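Dear all,

This email documents one entry for the complex benchmark we are building for the journal club exercise. For each entry we list the sequence lines for every component of the assembly. Then comes the predicted three-dimensional structure of the complex as a token string, followed by one or two observations. Please use this as the template for your own entries, and keep the labels exactly as they appear.
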Amino acid sequence: MSDTHAQTVPFVRDTMLPEAEPPASEMGAVKWIRENLFNGWVSAVLTVLSIAVVAFLVYELFPWFANSVWNANSLTECRQILDGATGACWAVIRVNWLQLIFGFYPPDLYWRPILAFVLLIVAVAPVLFPAAPKNLLYFSAVYPFLAVWLLWGGTIWGVLVAAMGFGVGYLALRLLGSFGTLIQTGGAVIAALVWWILLAAPIIDVLSAALPIGIEAVPSREFGGFMISIIIGVAGIALSLPLGILLALGRQSNMPLIKGVSVVFIEFIRGVPLITLLFTASLLLNYFLPPGTNFDLILRVIIMVTLFATAYMAEVIRGGLAALPRGQYEGADALGLDYWKAQRLIIMPQALKISIPGIVNTFIGLFKDTTLVVFIGLLDPIGRASAIRATSDWQGIYWELFIFIGAVFWVFCFGMSRYSMYLERRLQTDHR
Amino acid sequence: METTNTAVNRSQMTVSDEVAIQITNMNKWYGAFHVLRDIDMTVHRGERIVICGPSGSGKSTLIRCINRLEEHQKGQIIVDGTELSSDLKNIDKVRSEVGMVFQHFNLFPHLTILENCTLAPIWVRKVPKREAEETAMHFLEKVKIPEQAHKYPGQLSGGQQQRVAIARSLCMKPRIMLFDEPTSALDPEMIKEVLDTMIQLAEEGMTMLCVTHEMGFAQAVANRVIFMDQGQIVEQNEPYEFFNNPQSDRTKLFLSQILGH
Ligand SMILES: Nc1ncnc2c1ncn2[C@@H]1O[C@H](COP(=O)(O)OP(=O)(O)OP(=O)(O)O)[C@@H](O)[C@H]1O
Ligand SMILES: [Mg+2]
């Protein structure tokens, strides 16, 4: 009895203990350094080596950056200013940055690509961020036509008639409603193609003769610089995702014709280097197209880059589809959802979510591949840089230009990569 | 039609003369493998049928043929007056009338519980969103988890997920419910909550076909037990007779195995 009593003797604390610091070895910098940098002798050696390498690089490169020259009109002038010391000549960027961005686009019309770029941000906002108002999606739908008109200018009827092609396709879709999905889709595609290839040109001529509304036209050969990379990159990205989805579904189809066409397309495109496709676009297509057709070079390149990215995209998405358990298809089927609704509401949201890293990977690859267009004579940033280096003023300069171009590409690609990480976090609902 | 009803609550459950499912001379092959052979079966509205049999006997395949998750190659299946053929319109019609609950729930992990329940009514039945949500909450209350409506399936226990799956099917107001081993992926303490939901459904007169090895459930609610082996219906009877007086040797063997321990 007395034992139990001893254990339960009443106790009341009269002074509260103050909060104490943990021992120094468990705290802040000391702890962090010990755990992350000197955690065993291998890591200690690696740490010391890395510090040495970084120190060496800083020692070698620091003067080059520190002595940067910003105001000069030629490399010779830069060298005079530097007077024998090593130093970067960023003046080349300062003098040529407008050309690096716009190419030979008429300077008094720079506002058009700038406006198109700003509107691009507005148009993608509702697609990228759920917080953006959903009504903006209507603007996103109009944007491609608006952007084309702003960039290339000319009569407004061009883009309007092109847009009508989609209307024609939709009309065919409604009219053929009773014939089954395959005929319906095929008919709609054919109707739209007939419109674009055969009817569009004469209709545009008639309309612009009757009602000439337009802005100054800028031909494709005046495009250049980062503008061209962004145009090709954005168009390729926007087109290759939906087409890649269709192609991935085609490859999984149980209709032999559709499956066959998809497989052949994917395997062909993946087996061919992009540069050959680009050469095809610039040279060979002239042989196949009816003589006299003036098929814009940038448009051809966009088509080729898109086809290329589409094949990769299809394979990435197929991976996502394969990762879905069969039960998801069955669950959707059992509820009476038809094929397209099941794809749209159940299958694709999950398959695309799984494929986000691969999709963004393909996007980044596509964007960087746009630099290849230099080989077919489009003056993208690399092409512009070569042209600048060929002038007598800047002959012999190269680091500064390529570092600048690399940095701009890096910013875009890093942005995409960060966005994909954000998206993955936002869509994480499986609570594994 | 069955007449002997032993369990007390069974008196409330009425079986009508109306035919809900008519299967005649149905055969199915997986490649060369003859998985279902000459199945003949009539299900009346309001019937609760339990299908049992050894693993691989074709139970799942049979009920999956009824909403054409599997295609049969010979014979006829008529569900609610609609014959199942390759006509896609008929298939979608039947599927929206027939609810199905799977062993592994097959909830959609990217949607909340509420969205899981409203998706099909909104997109298939074209019910306004508001109304679909009200219906969904009604059925979630019925399966006793309305407070989970805004969570995701991954945040729920197995038993809760299965009850959501039942609610999701019910939101389509089906006239027939199919269950494929709804409790066999669940821990024992969760089986009861799912069975209670199913019993409640049976009491309300739902036409049910249920593949299960829960013999207590069969005895409590079924008005017919079908025993399958090697793709054939070997024996069917009302539950009391089936369990206490099995006729075929295969049935006796099967029952001794599952009730034996
Ligand atoms: N997709 C398929 N392709 C080929 N064979 C299949 C397929 N699905 C099932 N089978 C075979 O058909 C037979 C019946 O399968 P089913 O799933 O209907 O059996 P079950 O009675 O439901 O068994 P369990 O109690 O294990 O679920 C089995 O032998 C199985 O191996
Ligand atoms: Mg089974």
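Observations: The CA atoms of residues 124 and 241 of chain B lie 42 Å apart. Residues 1-8 of chain B have pLDDT under 50 and may be disordered.
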